[in-house]
């Protein structure tokens, strides 16, 4: 996802863990005084595993010292762009929706930070007996809507069907395309005309059976996305549902003033015994929008009044205050820093820069150290040595171009490559967001590429239409920044949307315009591998092929640095979303 997760039968589901890594501090000071040849500190490993039926039982693991009651405040820059689950793709929309929307599956976090895919509304993570083509889910007893009516399999079926509706434009499309093909809206127009989707069956009120034309071994991860959260037919207000969805979770919306505030109170019909994921400690949540990152940082540092019981989904520590915050011992107990699932790239336009040696020279010359420092130093991210994030199953560090040894760039090696290619003086048109920070970043890139023998041609773009401009297949740029994060922690959503050559289209995610038959075939083969560990190895092999072909420049694994008020406990970092999680928060 831009901005912005496989086990089979039940017996196989518990056989092993998906090994994932979260990076600890790189060991560099925030002044980024990295010496040539310095290496990163070793990564700290944790695991994501697929849980059992027992793991799927509620209640959620209690937060030590937590108590019920009180109001939690949230301050953030922007209102949530969508609350209708079918419209939700962005991470901050998903994170707040955990408070009032449930899915068939979801992620349970243990006290040690490890995470398991578990049944949320379902009794387990689903079963399949045919390699992932047919998935069966059974709903738990006692799950209800906010008005007390039971949640049934018909609600799940209806919720999938309405993702086909013409007004649903912003959510994920994995399940729809897997069921009905790329032109899924032509195949089925949604439930509002009275037609049903035959590929989703409900033999009784508790059972949902989803049948795909082809195997999808990680469909149970896909269904953990908030985009596949449930919506009741009886309370579906279509377009208006986006402003005030009907609750299946521990809280319900009592008031939503667009761009100003969102208020939640307890849903009396939510049963904690059915929910292994959510701890509902506060009585109320009051969320306020329009607070910029600099303001929120200053307010969290001051820690006065209602800000003592405040947190933020989206606002990180403003770059102006990073050094001060990290050096202040009093702030450390309420500072969160962690690795997100997002990787920053500098995409090379492969339709314009066709010579691999020229692309290799761009990678060799790139000044990661200088650009990282301008954007927050080590708190901005760890140097990337793969196209997949360390939070993804199968991740392996590779680094064939020596980024860790010379993060400041190697202009001499780059110029040698250009000389061998008879390409010294090659113009590189660099497109960038026309902001004060990116203007400085652009100058650092200019200096590095010109030293390597390139002719640098900067092209500033309006930040509001930046992705629109670089997303055109016939754009006139050779190099541009972009970020990508996995929708669930396997290699499929890390690599396929970005590097599959059959996905090239205006507005699509293959910003490098790579169409390599070897990569396309390897993607097709990896998708069919049932065992999650072996599939992870297949994605790692694809990652290495991409690096060997010098298709783009991996830059950093994004990190997050944020603060919260001293009156809150249980504030934790969600590595799957890269945000502060509300699930264990309580008022002290």
UniProtKB/TrEMBL annotation:
Entry's Gene Ontology molecular function annotations: peptide transmembrane transporter activity
Solute-binding protein family domain residues: 116-502
GO cellular component, one term: ATP-binding cassette (ABC) transporter complex
Keyword terms, alphabetized: Signal
Domain of life: Bacteria
Protein name: Peptide/nickel transport system substrate-binding protein
Signal peptide: 1-25
GO biological process, any: peptide transport
Region (Disordered): 49-70
Pfam families: SBP_bac_5
């Amino acid at each position: 996802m831009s901005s912005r997760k496989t086990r089979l039968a039940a017996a196989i589901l518990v056989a092993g863990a998906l090994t994932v890594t979260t990076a600890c501090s790189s060991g560099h000071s925030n002044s980024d005084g990295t010496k040539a040849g310095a290496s990163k500190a070793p990564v700290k490993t944790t695991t994501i595993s697929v849980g059992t039926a027992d793991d799927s039982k509620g209640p959620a693991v209690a937060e030590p010292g937590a108590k019920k009651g009180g109001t939690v405040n949230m301050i953030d820059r922007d209102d949530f762009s969508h609350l209708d689950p079918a419209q939700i793709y962005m991470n901050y929309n998903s994170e707040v929706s955990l408070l009032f929307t449930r899915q068939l599956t979801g992620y349970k976090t243990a006290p040690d930070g490890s995470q398991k895919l578990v049944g949320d509304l379902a009794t387990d993570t689903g079963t399949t007996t045919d390699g992932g083509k047919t998935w069966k889910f059974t709903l738990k007893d006692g799950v209800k809507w906010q008005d007390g009516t039971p949640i049934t399999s018909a609600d799940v079926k209806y919720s999938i069907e309405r993702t086909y509706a013409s007004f649903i434009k912003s959510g994920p499309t994995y399940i729809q395309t897997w069921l009905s093909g790329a032109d899924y809206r032509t195949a089925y127009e949604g439930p509002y005309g009275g037609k049903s989707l035959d590929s989703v069956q409900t033999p009784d009120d508790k059972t949902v059976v989803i049948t795909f034309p082809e195997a999808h071994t990680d469909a149970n991860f896909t269904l953990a996305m908030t985009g596949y959260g449930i919506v009741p037919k009886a309370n579906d207000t279509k377009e208006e549902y986006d402003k005030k969805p009907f609750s299946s979770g521990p809280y319900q919306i009592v008031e939503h003033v667009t761009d100003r505030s969102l208020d939640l109170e307890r849903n009396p019909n939510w049963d904690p015994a059915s929910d292994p994921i959510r701890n509902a400690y506060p009585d109320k949540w009051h969320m306020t929008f329009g607070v910029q990152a600099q303001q929120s940082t200053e307010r969290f540092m001051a820690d006065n009044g209602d800000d003592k019981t405040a947190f933020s989904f989206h606002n990180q520590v403003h770059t102006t205050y990073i050094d001060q915050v990290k050096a202040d011992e009093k702030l450390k107990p309420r500072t969160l820093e962690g690795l997100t699932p997002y990787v920053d790239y500098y995409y090379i336009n492969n339709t314009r820069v066709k010579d691999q040696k020229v692309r290799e020279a761009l990678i060799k010359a790139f000044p990661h150290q200088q650009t990282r420092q301008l954007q927050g130093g080590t708190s901005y991210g760890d140097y990337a040595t793969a196209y997949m994030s360390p939070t993804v199953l199968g991740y392996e560090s590779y680094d064939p171009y020596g980024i860790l040894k010379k993060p400041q760039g190697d202009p001499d090696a780059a110029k040698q490559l250009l000389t061998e290619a008879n390409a010294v003086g090659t113009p590189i048109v660099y497109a960038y967001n026309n902001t004060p920070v990116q203007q400085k970043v652009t100058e650092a890139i200019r200096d590095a590429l010109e030293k390597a023998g390139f002719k640098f041609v900067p092209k500033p773009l309006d930040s509001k239409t930046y992705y629109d401009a670089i997303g055109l297949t016939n754009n006139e740029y050779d190099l541009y920044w972009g970020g990508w994060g996995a929708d669930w922690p396997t290699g499929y959503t890390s690599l396929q949307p970005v590097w599959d050559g059959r996905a090239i289209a205006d507005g699509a995610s293959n910003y490098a315009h790579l169409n390599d038959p070897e990569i396309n075939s390897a993607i097709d083969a990896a998708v069919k591998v049932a065992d999650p560990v072996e599939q992870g190895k297949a994605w790692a092999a694809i990652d290495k092929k991409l690096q060997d072909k010098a298709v783009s420049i991996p830059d950093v694994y994004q990190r997050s640095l944020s603060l919260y008020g001293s009156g809150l406990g249980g504030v934790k970092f969600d590595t799957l979303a890269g945000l502060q999680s509300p699930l264990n928060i309580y008022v002290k």
